């Protein structure tokens, strides 16, 4: 459409590179922001701008606006996805972490398969972008009904608000009203001291080592994962089937993840 051929052919891959550059920025910045401002406001803000820039991508009149919108989609999408995962985990007890964590990522795999189906039914890329982006509006409206993370509220010393959220969750689960009174921890009582920040990950020897290991694992897994997924279109056979299978092939991995996470090593 924009004649991205010959000397401009590099712009095709440049747009994807800008998206992943934004993804990196979002993953780095949204975590500390949610620690400071709260999980819910950062998540909702990220989802809002994800929808907005998604529509900008679909309606972009030229390549430059398209590329810039992909960059900002990467920032808010990566950051919002990370915060939403943490928010989901902080709603439940530790015994459910393996289930909710696996279920959350299962939706990503299912989304790839659904996107392949949409691509098969909607061939024009602008309409495809509009259709795939529109469910975000529904999720955005529903997200306003979510409570703040009780764990984050507790870490900030907001005991009354944390108790209200726990009561709300208990009532939603069909339980009777709890006789609950949270006690401040040592960390929440010292609000005048500097709050824990990202530098603590490198100051403490144990946290420093675990951070390095997790960064390496995340890097390797992402490199292999996106290398295979993004090249699904280069495989022989039906393009849409290849993309769908690249998502569905993940599904058997999630029960295994739950098993190994819960296993006592």
From TrEMBL:
Q: Which InterPro entries match?
A: MFS_dom (IPR020846), MFS_sugar_transport-like (IPR005828), MFS_trans_sf (IPR036259)
Q: Name one GO molecular function term.
A: transmembrane transporter activity
The primary site where this protein sits is: membrane
Query: Keywords in UniProt for this one?
Result: Membrane, Transmembrane, Transmembrane helix
The protein's topology relative to the membrane is: Multi-pass membrane protein
Which GO CC annotations does the UniProt entry carry?
membrane
Localization per Swiss-Prot or TrEMBL: Membrane
Read off the Pfam families from this record: Sugar_tr
> Which sequence ranges are marked TM in the entry?
12-30, 42-60, 67-87, 99-120, 127-146, 209-228, 240-261
Under what name is this protein listed? S22FL protein
* Domain of life per record: Eukaryota
Give all residue intervals belonging to the Major facilitator superfamily (MFS) profile domain: 1-265
Q: Does the keyword DNA repair apply?
A: no
Keyword Glycosyltransferase belongs to the record:
no
The gene it comes from is Slc22a15b
Identify the species of origin.
Answer: Tricholaema leucomelas (pied barbet)
